Amino acid sequence: MPPFRFVDRADAGRRLADAVRRAVPDLKQRRALLLGIPRGGVAVTAAMAERLALPLDVLVVRKIGAPGQPELAVGAVGPDGKAVYQPAVLEALGLRPDDLRAEEARAREEVHRRLAAYGAGPPDTTDLAIVVDDGIATGATVLAALAWLKAARPELRLLVAAPVAPPEARKRLASLADRIVLLAEPEPFYAVGQFYRHFPQLEDDAVLTLLDRHRRR
């Protein structure tokens, strides 16, 4: 297993903020909004919001885990309740969407619960959405987020930012993202948590505290 690259999500967020600033030199002139994918992505996004002096909101997406491997995302459900699957991952596992209806239903239920808890809406006055997660594995969760944003605001520019992702993730994300900022693309890649020293699960209370502190008014 490779050594960790980030102390915690806040450390990753600060470093990611600096990388985004370099990637978008005119960031201060843009109507940019940071959109964190809960739960862990919100902690990264909060550190970025402080560093970049940008507003933050939440983008509720829930992964659809593989049967017997709930941490392996084969797809995801977006805020509109629609499921987006990763064909390459399904093929590798010998699965079809019909095999995952129970997992899909659980993900959709969790999306509804989190929308009720956190609140969320399309970024109506934003011209650049920076979609942030604490790491990308298959890319299914982020792709579902991007698909929803494209449907809600086709003209919106989309930037994906994450501390770490496997090398193949960039190609998948490029189908919907206008720009991608990744701090590390290591190989081999087993799980996002292996690249953090401290990687605790965030609870709803922690997410709500961060949103209350940094959310756009």
Automatic annotation (TrEMBL):
Gene3D superfamilies: 3.40.50.2020, PRTase-like
Pfam family, one: Pribosyltran
Superkingdom to which the source organism belongs: Bacteria
Boundaries of every Phosphoribosyltransferase domain copy: 12-177
InterPro entries (alphabetical): PRTase-like, PRTase_dom
SUPFAM superfamilies found in the cross-reference section: PRTase-like
Entry protein name: Phosphoribosyltransferase domain-containing protein
